[in-house]
Amino acid sequence: MIRIPPLRRLVRSLAMACAAALSVPASAQGDLLVAPTRVMINSGGNAEVVLSNIGEKPATYRISLELRRMEESGDFDEVAEADANSTERAALDMVRFAPRRVTLLPGQPQAVRISVRPPEGLPDGEYRVHMSFRAIPTPGAPDAAAPPEAAPASGVTIKLTPIYGITIPVFVRKGRLEAQASITSARQVRFENQAFLEVDMGRTGQRSVYGELIGKSPRGEVLFSLRGIAVYPEVNRRKVHVPLNAEQAARVKGPIKLEYRELPENGGALITEANLTVS
To answer: Within its chain, how far is the Cα of 234 from the centroid?
Structure first.
């Protein structure tokens, strides 16, 4: 059993409590814990994201805003500011945050304040940026995860230092926006000896959809569930890959029912459903 020092337990509890209060989970990468993992601001206003250092050493993080576009595969493409469209440019212009760099002692939480001031005449719609939290390596600090370096024959040494980070979406919604989702087909596929259920999903309307995908047998037994499934406004359809273990792969065949619901902490309302036959 891994024992967590009392101070670290307190910080974990604080971050998780913040996440629960905001109806979204926390996300961890390396020694950084971030809550919430999604920020939604209607029209204008303020929000906070809590960062917590759950490691044993001080750590410094750089905070910035990025633009990303969803692809139909569900992956994201990074977008340079010079290539931003009008919606993306408006999102960057109206979202402000502070601080932009933080140093956290072990067990120390820090709030990042987010402020949104939509300009006059902003069209109704959903605007989104991605807030990035990236670790800044400590100069001269040894990389404990790196293997001992062998003596180079050429006299040149190259050291690769991994940089850990987390990125979360920040949404600004203006106006009364509607969206509908659909599930059109599903099939089993394999990638590198791992079974997946590949699901084709669609979206229409002026905003994104977000929720949990649940698979059920004809008798209503839950076969799997996968949280955090989003379809963003820049795509009308996307593929979702649900990892399946051996038992699930054997059962997720033939007729099944797929439900796409809001997360339980957001009410669990049904967004869409489909009865499909999986081959």
So the answer is: 17
